Amino acid sequence: MAEALPDPVILLDRTGQVLSCNAPARGLFASLREGSHISSVIRRRSSSTPSAPPRRAGAP
User: Fold this and answer.
1) What is the pLDDT of residue 30?
2) Given this model, what pLDDT does residue 43 score?
3) The whole model's pTM is what?
4) What is the CA radius of gyration of the chain?
5) Which end of the chain has fewer CB atoms at under 10 Å, N or C?
6) Where do the segments described as Disordered lie (predicted)?
7) Does 23 fall in a domain?
């Protein structure tokens, strides 16, 4: 069913194992494979990568 969707779809179990993924998802993440752990595909942002400052509640 996910293969028919045009958007990337990754189905994970509770532990983060990839149960299923469609072609658009594999196009974004070349190393994405069923049975692999999502953390092996999606890395955390490096501490050297600048990020936006935190927004305060109620701030535009």
Assistant:
1) 86
2) 73
3) 0.64
4) 16
5) C
6) 39-60
7) yes
Give the range of the structural domain holding residue 13, as residue numbers without chain letter: 2-35
Nearest to 18 by CA among 38, 4, 3: 38
Asked if 37 and 18 count as a contact pair (C-beta separation under 8 A), the reply is yes
pLDDT, one tens digit per residue, over 16-51 is 999 999 999 999 988 888 999 999 888 765 555 556
- Structural domains counted in the chain: 1
Longest alpha-carbon distance in the chain: 42
Residue with tokens 């594999």: 26
- The tokens of 10 are what? 């990754």
- For residue 25, tell me if it sits in a domain: yes
46-to-30, 39, 43, 53 alpha-carbon distances in Å: 20, 14, 9, 16
3-class DSSP state of 51: coil
